[in-house]
TrEMBL record:
The lineage of its organism: Bacteria, Candidatus Woeseibacteriota. PROSITE patterns: SPOVT_ABRB. It comes from Candidatus Woesebacteria bacterium GW2011_GWF1_46_13. NCBIfam families: lp_hng_hel_AbrB. Residues 1-43 form the SpoVT-AbrB domain. InterPro entries: SpoVT-AbrB_dom, SpoVT-AbrB_sf. Signal peptide: none annotated. One of its GO terms (molecular function) is DNA binding. This is SpoVT/AbrB domain protein. It holds the Pfam family MazE_antitoxin. Keywords: DNA-binding.
Amino acid sequence: MRVQEKGQVTLPVEVRQKLGLKKGDLVAVIETEEGVLISPQEIVATKALDRIGEVLKEKGISLEELIESGREERVSIIEKQYGIRSDKGK
């Protein structure tokens, strides 16, 4: 592959077909010790979410607890940033 003037590269058709990439799809470019890894964006996001789920499970944190802590954090941020007090979620 050749890098074009604006940094563009053309992935071979076989690679695009194997990865199911179509015109306009997003890819993630990840630097590794060996070079660069190009992967469909959705696969990278799914792996990250799966890993977050694994860590939460290892720590014994349920989905309900995670959602509730998010609510509490939002209330705290709104109170600090905007001075708006709310008893909801507490």
